[in-house]
Amino acid sequence: MIEASFQIKPERCWAQKLSQEFPDITMTVFSIHQEKGLSRWECEDSLQLRAALEKARADDTLVSLDIFSQNQNEIVVQSVCRCENRYKVHDILSRGGCYYLLPNPIVTCKGAKHYRILAPDADKLRNVVEMLQNIGEVKITAVHPLEHVDDSFFINVVELKGLLSEKQLRTLKRAYLRGYFEIPKRARIKDLADELGLSPATVYEQLAEGENRIIASIIDYL
């Protein structure tokens, strides 16, 4: 059994087009029921969220887009679309004998939809990728043998989020979005400090404390 991650840019998909135009917004699909999808949109810039919402509502492939809940840096929306390829990924995975790896949501960011799946073997994975290429650009981002079921669902995300103060969470999110954790780094402590209006020492302290709390809460699952 193989675990694989891939990203796809499905043609004529409103979410993919929106993500390409607003790369700082992350859209996470939590639930799909019949024709309705429930997703969370996150961005540090609330003005971008508002602009993206208006842009999406003007797309002629969307039947409806309603706000389920919202706060300053995120909105949860319920949508119904009539995109030509809206069920194609699900159908292709089913026909190819591959499956979603639960409990991982479908994430749309930086112009692509991201999936984690299970494939019985390399041939079936290759076949699924070839079929997916008929509806959009596909890139495999990770492949490895499935050694054990992902334990991440045993971690209560609400409790994990509760370990961090609002300031720590804001700083961690900004650091992640700006590429601070990438190698090489796309942003320095000073860059983050200038954007957040804090001293470099405060940013460093918030990042270090936030990282320590998160690692301490998940290390036993690794």
Radius of gyration: 19 Å
The proportion of residues in beta strands is: 25-35%
List low-confidence stretches. none
Q: Give the distance, in angstroms, between the N- and C-terminal Cα atoms.
A: 20 Å
Integer tally of domains: 2
Largest sheet: 9 strands, antiparallel
Mean pLDDT: 86
Summarize the helix and strand pattern as letters.
EHEEHEEHEEEHEHHHH
How much helix, percentage-wise, in residues? 25-40%
Can you describe this structure?
The protein folds into 2 domains: 2-145, no CATH class; 155-221. The mean pLDDT is 86. It is globular. The protein has 8 helices and 9 strands. With 222 residues, it is α+β, with helices and mostly antiparallel strands. Helix content is 38%, strand content 30%.
Task: Summarize this structure as a short list of keywords or feature phrases.
single chain, 222 residues, alpha+beta, 8 helices, 30% strand
